[in-house]
Amino acid sequence: MGKRWVHQVDEYDRERGISYWTKNYRTAHDRTDPEALRRRYEYVDPIRPLPAAGQQWWADRRAPAAMGPLAIGLSLTLIHLVSIPVTNTSVNPARSTGPAVFVGGWAVEQLWLFWLAPLVEPPVKR
Predict the structure, then answer these.
(1) For the chain, how are helix, strand and coil distributed in percent, rounded to 5?
(2) Cβ pair 20, 41 in contact under 8 A
(3) Within this chain, do residues 72 and 99 fall inside the same structural domain, yes or no?
């Protein structure tokens, strides 16, 4: 049996949807940190079920509109510079279809996700 990692709720802010957790285990990253088991970790719940005051609190702290496209652009740049040369990763469903058809088997079995995800994502956001 492996390790049992347990997080315990320390406090919950119902208006802002933030729960504060403590943990009763150490990882390799924090094994020498004396505060690791006393530190509170935040978990942010989805915003939609929050009351109006909580939604407004988060809206006031929203990142500037230009940050979204910048983050997406930098992520794609990183994918193109690192992942594609190393593993031949494809980020374009149309470009993945041709090789998958020629390879067959496992490649075709995974292809459905490349086409389904972009079609499902916009309705899910609404």
Answers:
(1) 50, 15, 40
(2) yes
(3) yes
Rounded-to-integer distance, Cα 65 and Cα 62, Å: 8
Can you give the residue range of the structural domain that contains 26? 7-60
* Residues 65-105 pLDDT 10s: 788 888 889 988 988 888 878 777 777 777 788 888 888 88
Q: Which of 42, 60, 78 is the last residue of a domain?
A: 60
Cα 118 from Cα 125, distance rounded (Å): 12
Which helix (DSSP H) or strand (DSSP E) does residue 94 occupy?
helix 93-103
- pLDDT-derived band at 108 (thresholds 50, 70, 90) equals confident
pTM: 0.40
45 and 73 together in one domain = no
Rounded CA gap, 96 and 122, in Å? Answer: 21
Q: Looking at the chain, how many residues does it have?
A: 126
